[in-house]
Write a structure and sequence with these properties.
The chain is an alpha/beta fold and 302 residues long. Helix content is 38%, strand content 19%. An 8-stranded parallel beta sheet has the order 1-2-3-4-5-6-7-8.
Amino acid sequence: METGTDALLDNIQARMVTILKMKQTYETAIAQEESALAQDRRLLNSFQPIGKIPMDVLLIIFMFYIQDTLPENAKRRNPFNIVRLTHVCSRWRVVATETATLWTFIDLGWPAWTIALIPRSVLAPLSVVFSSYSPVENYPTKSLTKYIFKHHPRRIASLKISAPHNIFTWLDIFIPLFLPSLRVLQLVCAYGEASTPRFAGNLPTNLQYFRLMGNLKWKIESPPLLSHSTLETLSLRLNTPDSRLQMGDILRALDNMPLLKQLHLHTAFSTLWSTSLPSIVQLPYLTRLSIVGQCFELCCFP
């Protein structure tokens, strides 16, 4: 009898020791969590309330968030992400509505959104795009296109058009012959054969990016590239030979493009064999060179 009682007492004592150890473990964990929570509270209390942050600092935070989380295509196709961010508080909304650079991406194929952008962009440079790969008639809004190119030609810093041939003919009616602030020009004929718009023969001399692609033919006496000393990217990916666009002239003009970083020549031209090319071309900043097509003589380096 005594032996059974002693065994029972030993078992109870062992369980009590285990319970005390578990209690000590839980008390230690609770103390650590309370300490961490107190530290978080001290850190939180050290933050400046958003209502007291200067507007210029809020602007930097806002722009960093937008550029870090939204790629360019997301800003173009789903710009309402920016609007959602402004619902955090009234000061965020003020930052968004007063930051003109957030409202400068003009898509001619999205008139309702563009009409809202124009007044918010104030006088900031505009990036105008239109993209359509359908061979059927799918024109931008006539009134919107006419308004932008008539009333804001000096604000257009970037113009990118990827469209069928009929769109180029249609846009050539509305685009003025000179866009003085243009820095980026991209023309891609996605379907059919089109003539290069008239304004491409009168580009500003401080152009930085120039790209032609597809079945585009020159209707201009000479290429507008020969005096662009500020050009950093030159890309010609043309499928249609055209005697007005002599590749030899463009290659000889490379000496006048000392800042050139990227050169892409993808052509179907066979006129290089009769041209006299320079023996040495100085392009100290060139980081990318791509030559494809009937330009075989360019591979014969001394």
